[in-house]
Amino acid sequence: MALSVKHLLGIRELSLDDIHTIFQAADRFKEVLQQPIKKVPALRDTTIANIFFENSTRTRISFELAQKRLSADVVNFSASGSSVSKGETLIDTVHNILAMKVDMVVMRHSSSGAPWFLARHTDAAIINAGDGTNEHPTQALLDAFSMREKLGDLKGRRVAIIGDIMHSRVALSNIYCLGKLGAELMVCGPPTLIPKGIEEMGVRVEYDVRKALQWCEVANVLRIQLERQNKPLFSTLREYALYYGINRDMMQSLEQEVIIMHPGPINRGVELASDVADSSSSIILDQVQNGVAIRMAVVYLLSGTTQA
């Protein structure tokens, strides 16, 4: 198995065959994760640097666990407390790390396009762990993989992405990934949080969350990203919860069962009530588990290793 790309910078660069190849590898690695010994020696001679210029808990831990399950040597770098805080540039930071003979870099950065910049200036394989408001490819892959487990082929399946669409790199990567897989897509949220012209990406737009839930088979619910908003785009979180928060009564009023997803972290009582996040309709914890398998697959396939 091999990918058509050297780096995973965004879903846009992946072919449909690439996505299916990643899913096939993730299926195999998920079987490994169910075994008593959850480790394979596939990347025993590979060194990977996780470089996070933005705070992260779930994504960083998921990548690190995936890499260690593959027996790679792992170096973790955080911008806080590093020379970056003293004015060192991105390219100097990475060159210093690569001088230590690192084979692969997993990077999260607050600036959109940073992984592309890095890929042009280094020989190591680059994995984008989230860049600004642009893309978060492994999150989209694990989301689609989780839907595939529940629904099978995603062609024609109705998926609603609900919440802060404008500031979400998860939303953009999901639109690219699910679109390639043939799903029907809708975005839903306050008008101030829906980018203008998003319909040109082949998605429907809905401003009423009840109508979105009545339409969809899967609701991928996103948090409000206050840290990315330069100015208030709605009155209060309480108002948002009142008009766009999903609660148990809303779910019980639906004629069909809707799968609930969330990339985390959940703002309980804002976009999702606890009794929905923890309900039988939720596959949020499945997403977390699948994140390790998908990231194992991506790291393994980009390492150039031919057999596990």
Count of spatially separate domains: 2
CATH architecture label of the largest domain? 3-Layer(aba) Sandwich
Secondary structure tally, helices: 11
- How is the quaternary structure best described? single chain
What Rg, in angstroms, do the CA atoms define? 19 Å
Overall pLDDT level: 91
Folded structure, characterized:
By secondary structure, the protein is α/β, with parallel strands linked by helices. It has 2 domains: 140 residues, Rossmann fold (3-Layer(aba) Sandwich), CATH 3.40.50.1370; 151 residues, Rossmann fold, CATH 3.40.50. 38% of the residues lie in helices and 15% in strands. The protein has 11 helices and 9 strands. Strands 7-6-5-8-9 form a 5-stranded parallel β-sheet. A 4-stranded parallel β-sheet has the order 2-1-3-4, with helices on both faces. Helix 6 links the parallel strand 5 and strand 6. Helix 1 crosses helix 11 and helix 2 crosses helix 11. It is globular and about 55 Å long. The mean pLDDT is 91.
Core attributes:
308 residues, alpha/beta, Rossmann fold, 2 domains, 9 strands, 15% strand, globular
Question: How would you sum up this structure in a few lines?
Answer:
This protein is an alpha/beta fold and 308 residues long. It is built from 11 helices and 9 strands. It has 2 domains: 11-136 and 289-302, Aspartate/ornithine carbamoyltransferase (Rossmann fold), CATH 3.40.50; 137-287, Rossmann fold (3-Layer(aba) Sandwich).
SSE layout and pairings?
Blueprint: H1 16-33, E1 47-52, H2 58-69, E2 73-78, H3 90-98, E3 104-109, H4 114-121, E4 125-131, H5 137-151, E5 158-162, H6 169-180, E6 184-188, E7 204-206, H7 209-215, E8 218-221, H8 237-244, H9 248-252, E9 259-261, H10 274-277, H11 284-302
Parallel strand pairs: 1-2, 1-3, 3-4, 5-6, 5-8, 6-7, 8-9
Helix pairs in contact: 1-11, 2-11, 5-6, 5-11
